Batch of 2 targets.
Target 1
Amino acid sequence: MANVVSQGAQERGTRTTRAEGALKAIAADQESPERLRRVLEQALVFAGAAFAAVYAPAQDGELLCLMESAGVPRTLYGLRDSYPRAGRSPVAAAHRGGRPVSLGPAELAADAQARRVPSGDFFLTALPVRGDGGCLLAVSERPGGFTADDLRCLELVSDAVAFTAPAAPAEAGDLPPNAFSLAMDSGRVRVGDDLLDLFGLDPVEFDGRVETLLSLTVPEDLPSLMSVVEADHMSIGDRELEFRVLQPTGPPKWLRLRGRLLPGGEGRPARLVGTVVDVSTLRSDVTDVARVQRLAAALATAVTVRDVGKAVVAALRRPLRADRIALAELESERLVVTVLDPPEPEAWPELWRSEWRTEWPDAPVRAMPTLAAALREGRARIWPAGSPLERALAEVGPGGLAVLPLPAGNRMAGACLIGWDTPHDFGTDERALLTACAGLAGQALVRARAFDAEHELVGMLQRQLLPRSLPRLPGAVAVARYLPSTAGLELGGDWYDVIPLPDNHVALVIGDVQGHSAGAATLMGQMRTALRAYAVEGHPPDVVVAHANRLLVDMESDLFATCCYVDVDLEEGAAWCVRAGHLPPVLRHPDGRTEIAEAEGGPPLGVVARADFPMSPLRLPPGILIALATDGLVETPDSDIDEAMDHLAEQLAAAAPTDLGLVADALLGNAPRSDDVALLLMRYDGMDLRPLRESWTVWRVPQAVGHARRFARRTLRSWGVTAEYDAVLLVVSELVTNALVHTDGKVRMDLTLVNNRLRVAIADASPRSPVRPTSIGWEATGGRGILLVEALSATWGTLPVSGGKQVWAELVLGR
């Protein structure tokens, strides 16, 4: 017992130490505009808070206003953006009293300042910030609220807020020379003298209207600037952008605006405060000729098609101030995109997102006839804002679209799409720049294709052998990545798979076939198919892997394969892991802690015919992340595999598991790429609605059908089903009778209820599925059972189960 207590104290001390270290690192980063938000995020990580915020005194001293927040939306807890300092709110009480104030669900329900949320009870704690810096407010949804250790971490966060919170905005007459303060309701702006000099205005003649300043900006930059000065007053936070202002002579001047939108509270307008500085010296005055020369130099060293795409994006997007650029290869009437900027799917049209693949997106040319025509003509085409284009293209560039066909010999190798969100005027110089860049890119594609034609074939073959998309999982999200090696042009044998199984189970599979050759890739496809087939048949994980091992041995191949198979029960949050010479899974817990699963392993597949593959249990609390990878992600010739796995765990701990795609991309970005790489991630969130299940073993006795009916009736009553007994019992009778009459061995009945859908499943030892008769005469004595089941159920079918089968029917019930 003493050891347990000591271990718990050590873990609590470690948590506090980690919090102190994280907060010190944030405080040392003086240049980061997100310091305050990052400090608040530590309350979510180390104190388990669902929401954290800082309230600071307003200039008039009457209100405590929201400065920054992190976590779930504050509206879920009924929290406001300001509170009177003299009021009864927990924020005001903690600020006035200089001591923490904690409220539980009962107090919050009775407090007029807070509203109960429909999602359930929560606990609220407010801590004063030293130096009249306001108040730290934290919310916990965990039973019992914040523990003593959590409160200690919150105190550390409160101390850090005192050093990182931004200073209150200066009064109008005390503005720094390059600062401004804009009232969001009236558009009246107070500015420093240096700021007016940047705009070329006389302080005496300036009328104090923000419209006067906006009229001096370059028209193309006006929409982005308006999005800041007309922002929603509820969008509290930092703002930063660069824009140009017109000069009496010479080119426009580049300025950088950094501001913060602050709430005004009751009866006071929200304000945008910040600074404007000259950044023209940071902008290189590069001519279009120089840009073309730089692009030619970059393309001369581009090896692959992706290298060509990256060089084109680097040469065009910034000079053209484009919002998105895509470079795509033309393969069998489809545009397979190799480079996207920006890379996030949300930045691209809905059609493109619907076609999003595991590695790169692609889009059908037939869905974009305008693009198809441009590719046939082989010359650059430009469409200004408002041009009648098909939706898939119009959403790429609502403010203007340029399409550059990329010639490669006597055919078109692809296209480059450049889009703008705001109306864009295409000048003569821009058109010439686009045409020159298209010609250079096309020539570079010819050289790149000559160099990596076999490498492209490798990637195409690998994509065909791997799943095109991953299934949607109840209570979980999975993503996968595959990258071929860049060290050579041989085929790889890495693979992954996500296999949905009955009863809300899912199998996560990752593997690697020895060597790099066409034989390795072929064997990879065979092993993936075999594992999927054995899993769908209903075998337990160790049997699935053992069958695949015996199959590979019987194939008498000179190659072997490694594999990791994880069967996850999405209802219970548990899993069984089987390893065959492969790397173990890496688990990232909800609190950021990572561990390498202690899963006992067996030999690689295809080595020993009668090998044992033990199963190791895994507990999966909601929020856990499972990472399965091949050795190409971590292993290098000069590194130890254990150290490499520890490094992978550290990378996973530093990642935010909210977006698994970003996590996967970050992990792949550090891969050595001397070998092909497969990566499979799954975040288990827990099922919101768990099915009700009951099972019954049907004994072969004369009263077997009656027993099954009585069991079904008792089960439905215990579940609260009060109607439609007759239909359910008739389906049970027919399915059980068919199993007893036409099969031998054990018979099992499973009942599952989800919402109002009841699933009746009868499993037996015969692999032969029932056949629906095409016609039945009046004199026939059988064959009507399946017709009755079909008539009474919404749907029915069969599936293999461990050498036998399961006949199931689903009925929609009124409860």
Note: The CA atoms of residues 181 and 462 lie 57 Å apart.
Target 2
Amino acid sequence: MAKTVFKNILQILIILIFNNFLAQKTPEKLPKNVVNDTISKKDTIVVKKESLDDILRTKAEDQRRDIPKKMTFLNKNAQVIYQDMQIDADYISIDDNKNLIYARGKQDSLGKIVEPVITMQGGKKYETNEFSYNTKTKQAIAYNARTEESEGVIIAQKTKKYNDSVFAMKRADYTTDDYFIKKKDTAADYFMRASNIKLIKTKNKSQIVTGPIQMYIERVPTPLIMPFAILPFSDKRAAGILIPSFGEREDVGFFLNGIGYYQPIGEHFDLKVLADVYTKGSWNLRPQMNYQKKYKYSGSFNADIGTMVRGIKGLDDYNKNSTYRINWTHSQDAKSNPFLTFSASVDIVSTKFYNNPLNNNYIFNQNVLNTQQNSTVTLTKRFLKLPVTITGTASYSQNFATGLADLRLPQMNVAINQFYLFKSKTGVRQGLLENITVNTGFNLTNFVNTQENELFTKAMWDKMQTGLKNNIALATNTTLAKYFTFSLSANIDNALTTKSLNRYYDPIKNVTVDEINKNFAGYSTFSTTASLQTTLYGMLKFKKGSSVEAIRHMMTPSIGFTYSPDFSSPNFGYYKNYYNATGAITPYSIFEKGIVGSPSSGMVGALGFNVGNNIEMKVKSKKDSTGVKKLKIFESLNLSGNYNFAAKDHPWSIFSINGQSSFFNSKLTVNTSLTLDPYRIAFIPGQDTGIRTEEFGHFSVQGFNIQLSYPLSSEIFGEKTDYAKKYSSRGEVRNENYYFDDDNYAHFDQAWTLNVNANYAYSKGLNRFGSKIASIGLDGSIKLTPYWNINGSTHYDMVTKELAYTRIGFSRDQRSFTINFNWVPFGQYKVYDFFIGIKANILSDALKYKDRSFTQPNAPF
């Protein structure tokens, strides 16, 4: 047997050696065509591509594998991780044949989903009831999917994911309600519903594109429907539709105010185009452009162009007017160029623009009360080594009452910085000479006062006046006897103009004619003043234990003497005479009505006085830590007047008394003024205008004015309650701002403000009967609840017994949006305006509730 085994082993070794020899033998070469034929007839082995591009990781409390059907089932706390996607669900099935992952949320006994499927991919979280994902095509379908994007959330009945960038949704709701997003509330306070939505994602931003979209408030559909919407999810500026307010005005009908579109233009510009549309035919177009270059400049351009239609066509009350307003503002950053600055504030309107406002904001902001509009463009040049500042200005002023316009173009001022005339010998300036300061400069002006329709016509250029004026002011001061300040000053004015006046009486037409001569004329004037001032203190103390401890009185008396010659003297040639209608010789200045003003007439040698007073009182106070409280009786009480020694008649001037005080912890502010004429005014029977006599000592009231202002608030009348410490129970969800006592009554901070303004003015002059103006104004707000606010303003004229401009506003905070209502109930413009605005910043460009552009501090740039 051993021989047989050995024999078999030997045979096996011989076979192995022989096979190894055959394997090492070089095969014979075959013809080329034979080789190709052999290769083509061989079976090529193709490795089948795996259905998964990555490892698929699974886990669950219960896992089951159906090998014949190539299915995997995961139950309870199931999880699948594949590439950058993680799926967490109550039930997950994996079909290897169809490359399909299916997930379903947890169900209750009735089959209702009580816990959703959570899918995380690319840092985004998605919640769905059911979810299917194809690992091969990368496409997915989800039902009742909750997709969070930036500040909002989308809930769609069906969502299909085509790829990582495009999602299609059917019957989807979008909201930015923070409570709903954080699941503090099961219902959103508002949402926008669209039948179809496409969500497009890119690396830097995402956006929603929808067809018709409708707003729902508290699940109630509203008439706010848009044919389409594009909602961007980006921190950068983005284009969007501007949502209007709507309401009714008595004169022009129902309206949409502020409907339009917002479009950013490049890095430094953005554009808004707004429109106001009224049912009676009026319309208004309002383009608005903002621009900004950081650390350089910023500005805006606004325009209002429209047509106002009032009444019914064919009837007498029908009228149609075109209106316009052009506004441009520009400001330069001081850091960009401190030696050359440019600024502009241009506001040009048609004469009747504010009488025909098509933008209701002008009514609510009381711009309709404007009687004048001013525009200015300024260029300022400074020098590093020269003490000179050159300012070029162009200005335009409109007076809507007279229809006249003042144009100054151009106007140039050259100012030399103040300097000392003499140097100090010791480094500390002492005495009158070392303290002499000099201020001087030149002012060149081209001025015209003309009608609006004459602007830049030949009539305007004929009226244009050119004037050059130079002022030199010298001043100095020193201390006398330690307690007195002695001051000296002198003013020299030099003027040159291109036009002068020639006045005469035309007996044929019975009018006084002012003839303008186009020739150069000029004048020089000077005046000097010496004054002495000191400060006196007085204290009146009371007995210990009294409620008033002391009264302190500070008095600042000053006297000054002013001298200037009589520039109406024939020696100067600044004044001429003409015979008036009665034949009397009447003097007039040849510079009257001119741009450089007229020299003063009559010699002035006046001794003026001013007495300033400040009176305070110290009273006991338990609330103050020192036990003493200061009360200001008069913050200031000034009496001023003068006596002109050179005057031929009425040497005493009218006396003026001005006072200012505040009470109730400086809350109530009182400003008063009183003017007294020391001479008796005589009236001729049957005439209402009197004559000022030379009888001194009557001191009749010529004018009196008092203004009171008192801001009231809830904080003044009580301390703020800490409801969190006082009440243990607090509301939830929408009622979290309420605190409840043991009887379940709600408590909250009911803040309110009320500003009271009162004004009384009496003016008499030389009239027998004076005129009065008296009014009371109220401006305030009150929070009825933490979410309801009422605000308004009104003025009552106590002379006419009528209410003047009155506005009432209501606002409602609905967490995610606000509802605003403004109403002017009576007056020339009866209007109400209603607006709903979404708070979320993500929608402030798409559905523009706030003007979020780069002109705001927190906007990116």
Note: Confidence is low (pLDDT under 50) at residues 12-48, 845-861.
